[in-house]
Amino acid sequence: MDALQPERVARAMSEWGPAYSARICSPAEREEWGSEPLGVAACLAVKECLIKALGARPDPFSWHDLRTGGVACDNARALLADAGRALRAADGPAEFRVTGCAVSDRGLCGAALWGQKEDHILAIAVLLEEGSCAQHSSAKD
Hints:
Blueprint: E1 2-4, H1 6-16, H2 18-24, H3 27-33, H4 37-54, E2 67-68, E3 72-73, H5 74-89, E4 97-103, E5 108-117, E6 120-129, E7 135-136, E8 139-140
Antiparallel strand pairs: 1-6, 2-4, 3-7, 4-5, 4-8, 5-6
Helix pairs in contact: 1-4
């Protein structure tokens, strides 16, 4: 799980310009998530969840090695369903979006939930071995 303030991303984007979002998000991710601070912050929050799921940043590390967006793994999505309900019940975001995620060089794919609550993006992700992932389309949950 990760919590991130989009305002911090907005300040970094203001300071570093387009290079900041290009460093965090691949061209495909920028197309899907957008290049505004909220989209970049959501992408970054999901990627931070992936790092936590791995236990540490891969070595060598590139933000682009952690993929977000696209098709979500059904099996990982099912594991996240209870977490989404629990977060909503705990006064979390009223609505979560579901996205796919992967760490391809490790043979992992999964699903992530993310939503905005006041001044924070909350995200949670699950990774599974690629062979155990049934695919599903991205959608709201």
